[in-house]
Amino acid sequence: MRLLVVGTGSMAKSQINHFKAIEGVEIVAAVDTDPIRLTEFADHFGIERRFLSLDAAIAWGEFDAASNVTPDRMHHATSLALIAAGKHVFCEKPLAENYADAMEMTHAAEAAGVVNMVNLTYRNVAPLQFAREMVLAGELGAIRHVEASYLQSWLVSRAWGDWRSETRWLWRLSTSHGSNGVLGDVGIHILDFAAYGAATDIDHVFARLKAFDKAPGGRIGPYMLDANDSFTMSVGFANGALGVVHASRWATGHLNELKLRIYGERGSLEITHRPTDSELRGCLGEDIETATWRNIEVPAVPTNYERFVEAVRTGKQLDPSFRHAADLQKVIDLAIVSEKERRELTLLPPVEIVTVPDLPVPELRNELQVTADLETRPIAGEC
């Protein structure tokens, strides 16, 4: 598979390391509007072909698929251009800035018949995959309650860099620079983590979002720091379970931690993922009576990168697809509306109201006439 890289930032470096490790994948060209960044990236990875515009790369055309690692607000236009050229697309999350754009991309990809996948990276977590299989196998019984959290601390720690001075972080705090805050950035990950692990879909949402004061006047240079830093969300699932989902960049002591707890009638599971390790614990069978939790060993799973390559080779669409990511984007969009309107919103389609034609009603005699008839009616046995 000949792969084009569109965008050469830090996430592109991570992706290319994964793709280069897959047999049969060749990184044939890179695209970026910044010539210095493009040169450094291409030199580092030994990529010969370099383009300063996607149009030029498409005109060249000697590639089968593209990894779209552009900034969030560029995903829509760049992916549509690649799809129109008949190229398979592996897009970084979130798919788009809103549900309407995400669905336009979905419809275009499906109509063109190209493989389309979104890099929801935590699908690569083996304990999550194994937990889902246990849920689908019925080992937990009916799912009743779900808890999910995504905790980061880069607003109180410099472990990842200093957001006060580095634009690679500042844009994530500003809606005018294309950010939907922690909800749009990592919210899509934890929503997918929760729904995928519990093997169900979200159909109701009520959310609260908050951007805390971080600088005098709420601004650093051209960046208005108004994107949400924390969110809490209560959700309803299609399988009838209730759930609580939350995320924050103020989670002191948690560099990057995802946690999911799934509670069923016959057992419970807990998945924890950190940069250094992942684990799955369960409380099942007789252990329920003593609330004893045990570690569960899990096998390795294919990564998103490996499954995208497989999908292109076989022509078979695999998850997470554009359509799935669009559905998650709808949850995010409704969460923003929910915060503004302070009410729960549903993702379920509206109920169709069928008009029943008026039926003829027999004319009723008045009450006086009925009473008179009763008074004059013969009593049984009377002549």
From TrEMBL:
Keywords: Oxidoreductase. Gene3D superfamilies: Dihydrodipicolinate Reductase, domain 2, NAD(P)-binding Rossmann-like Domain. Residues 2-119 form the Gfo/Idh/MocA-like oxidoreductase N-terminal domain. It holds the Pfam family GFO_IDH_MocA_C3. Residues 129-270 form the GFO/IDH/MocA-like oxidoreductase domain. This is Oxidoreductase. It comes from the Bacteria. GO terms for molecular function: nucleotide binding; oxidoreductase activity.
